[in-house]
Sequence to fold (442 residues):
Amino acid sequence: MKIYFELNGEPQYVEIEPGERLLDLLRRLGAKSVKEGCGTGECGSCTVLLDGRPVRSCLTFAAKANGHRVTTLEGLAPDGEMHPIQRAFLETGAVQCGFCTPGFVLTAYAFLRENPDPTPEEVREALVGNLCRCTGYVKIVEAVLLAAQWKREGVWS
Amino acid sequence: MGIQRYHFARDVEEALSLLAAYEGRGALVAGGVDVMLSLPPETEGLIDVTTAGLSYVEERKGELRVGAATTLARLQGASETGRYLGGFLREVLRLVANPALRNMATLGGALVSAHSWADIPTVLIALGAVAVWREDGKEERATVEELYARPFRGIFRRAVLTEIRFPHWDGAFAFEKISRNAGDIALLNAACGLGLDDEGRIAWARVALGATPRRGQRLPGIEEMLVGETPSEALWERVQREAEAQAQVGDDMRASAGWRRAVAGVLVRRALSRAAGKLRERGTG
Fold:
């Protein structure tokens, strides 16, 4: 079947298998930031934004993207320049192996757009569905709080 | 053979006719969270009902009515949900899964999947929620508690769940859950509610316990012992002991029956005590 959707602002008119996962379609289209961790919706590594809201692409049928907007990490840094959330992750040491990082950054992006002045507790609640096996979560929470501060200061909108 | 077609149903009738046409080899998809992981191998057609007009939250005839394909996030954010029982469902949904899964999972999907460890079935039973579905050109309805007492999974291979109705309660509810971490499934959960008469005595009580490790069930013995009593610490202590005695608990890989029995009393006590506290705050208790 053919579907039409927008990937990181670019129109896509693509042939998909009816039972195909969004995760596989996005990687097939070159969005390699989308990672398969658990494949059962628990780890958050495959998180993408569907119409601006985080979803698990491993549990989303690709057909569901039809007529919608999908954003991956590539969409946050379209010209190869890191998004401020990515920079905040680097600055605070919130990245180790990096496999989970795209999911964290996209989850944080959607969250900070709704709540640009969160408490540490609110950040932890927003990130509850994203697992990191390397760094622990202290630095990741610090990174999101730093990105929030930069957003309030007008570094990004 | 594998999945051959993915359909977007324009309405419930189209979903029903597609289901019938696949003769058991079609599956309904709403959020898709459970379908993706548990699709029967014979499935050839997927029928997406999120395009069938089943995503809404409304207040009607004193009830909160929720379309079966409404995502948990949409339900959580709806102003109608905030007004129902002082925002009780928001309190629950904040603890269900995580924000990304709540953006995908639907209330109807949670009802039909009916995982034994899930929070929503326990809450639906405690609230006396009613499931409405269409089958053979007729509208059918039953309380979720009645539905779960039947072999209900077969129903939704030929029927479409359309709505969940939450009745009006003159009282307050509270929900308690214990899990290994904030994102994990429940080791045990409890949804309890009560209402008071003019003298401040308990006029009705609802007590449901889930993830025992079986799916949520009411504890009618506890509900009966509460009626006519006045909320107090002494009453909650008695309730805790009785809930420990009456809870039907078992072992599984996550927790032992002995642990669950002890925790069941604590969760029921906490939930009832918090529900009574809400009534006090509102000046009705």
